[in-house]
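Sequence only, no structure available. Ideas?
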Amino acid sequence: MAKCAICEKGVHYGNQVSHSHRRSNRVWKSNLKRVSCKVNGASKKLYVCASCLRSGKVERA
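Reply:
I predicted one. Tokens follow.
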């Protein structure tokens, strides 16, 4: 799975707990988008999470 190029956010693992408290494995995937960004004046496609896009840490091309 890809990671955010800015904050290195990736996949989180844990347990899904049912009502009877039985546990099974669970995966939380981060909200990643493949966007074209300006890197050193040139446009480059990067995987960036939605929170980095909203906060303005990335300048889109």
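The chain has a mean pLDDT of 94.
Hope that gets you unstuck.
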